[in-house]
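Bug report (template v2)

What were you trying to do?
Predict the complex of my protein with 6-O-alpha-D-glucopyranosyl-D-fructose.

What happened?
Run completed; filing so the output is reviewed.

Input:
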Amino acid sequence: APGAEWWRTAVVYQVYPRSFADTDGDGVGDLRGVIGRLDYLQHLGVDVVWLSPIYRSPQDDNGYDISDYQDIDPTFGTLTDLDELIAGLHARGMRLVMDLVVNHSSDEHPWFVESRSGKDSPKRDWYWWRPPRPGTVGGEPGAEPTNWHSFFSGSTWEWDEASGEYYLHLFSRKQPDLNWENPQVRRAVYDMMRWWVARGVDGFRMDVINLISKVVGPDGELSDGVVDPALPAGASRFADGSPLYTNGPRLEEFLREMHEEVLGAGARDGEVLMTVGEMPGVTLELARSVTDPASRELDMVFTFEHVGIDHGPVGKWQLNPLHLPALKANLATWQEGLADAGWNSLYWNNHDQPRVVSRWGDDSAEHRVSSAKTLGTVLHLLRGTPYVYQGEELGMTNVGWAEIDSYRDIETLNFYRESVSGGASDGEVMAGIGPVSRDNARTPMQWDDSPHAGFTTGTPWLSVNPSYVQINAAAAVADPDSVLHHYRRLIELRHTLEVVVDGRFALLLPEHEQVFAYTRTLPREGPVTGAGGSVDGALQPRMLLVVANCSSAPAEVTLTGMAAPLAGDLLLTTHPDGAPAEGELVALSPWESRVYAL
Ligand code: ISL
């Protein structure tokens, strides 16, 4: 029954535990830190916590390299702490979604240790082992089985001298890819997932799940990626292999099998689980197929198209200024594309993305608060399930350090090393890293204005952003005009208005370079009840109009045919003393946004 799909009315909050709250003074956040902040999350009004990985891990990629899927890393606590976290969430009517990282494991996972032990190991085929390219000597440049470039720089292949073959790692060399072609691997993953479901988790966020099916030739061969002719000669001897491992031929088959084995109704006493697949490079067509409930695969996916919209020709390390019409067009395509089948996830931020207020807002003292509120408004009133990344509700900003020594992220450090050894200057490389490094998202959560922002009594693993003196949760809770209270109201709108959950999306003024405007509309016929079923139908609007100035200059728009809605209720605004609309004409201050109901 559609009513059982609770995630359609939910808002998810992502906790990156390492940077959330530290209770034992070791400078790294922990599960007891999350437990201690549940009242804060309840006050914000979120329904679900997605917890980035807390499993046993050597922490080469901050827990996205797992050496035991069924235990907690001592840095974060114990299984007993996790049980207490689940109980604390459930007692408050909230749910827990765990990160599932099964495209790869850690190289220290016993599965890989055994696989590596020799060509005859019974687990050899659990990972991707391949001989050197014919006519070459293993370990020498050019001997790699394919020319693929790793997400984290260098080759995707690591030479293992002892067993005389290479293994595949799309990410770091400590993250070997699991071989999903092997049914034993899939069975082990499903068993592990069932164990977590039985323990009480309410769903999974699946790390790079669209990379699990590789393109394999008839004799098991993997093939070279095509070298981009636009790249300067000698830029890198590696090529983009992504078409050979992204959205692969067996992906949907594997997802259907996982659904049948683990996720189907009745997984735990008839509880409905929530699933979201992280899918860099997913197409709209594939997303629709995967998230159509009839397919029985996943509930929603994370697309990367909108967060790639400002990438330069060489990718994320060269960000361009945002061209608003392009962002609007992309979001509109996904809103329309998944209107009748499938479901969107809505996000600006996560632990891999720079802070949105610095990236697409204006983090100057003058505009930080209103730009954070306005970006929150345009995202949260779209159709789909919104995700709030820790600190986003405070309008936390990029830290953008100028020195490489301040950074800890493996992607950033590897990119720096590769670029500098390729001849680029420190200044050039740091100019790319500052605005986009993943560490911008990973500086510790800013709780108050005490030392280290109240995150730890020790030395934080990554320095706090000096902005904590002004930007912190204690100040935001105390200020009724804070970004935090604006996010609370947005979340409340989703919980109370059916039009926010189900209304059909229509983009207005697609070419406007400053203003993001759209409507959400419910059908004219039929009763309208609250999203939670508890609100008086008479109070339910059938139409919302969102008008948002996404720029630091004033803007004026004429919303043809909108005079009536503009005379209606103003449900939410960033500027309570803004000039009322005159007929169809709306004048907006910098970063002013309004939500009208009809
Ligand atoms: O960070 C990225 C872009 O800025 C992506 O390339 C990212 O590496 C990719 O989206 C996959 O991310 C996920 O898997 C990685 C892990 O490092 C990320 O933190 C995780 O979100 C490998 O497990």
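What did the reviewer find?
The longest strand covers residues 515-521. The chain has four domains: 2-103+183-211+250-398+445-478, 104-177+214-247, 401-434, 503-597.
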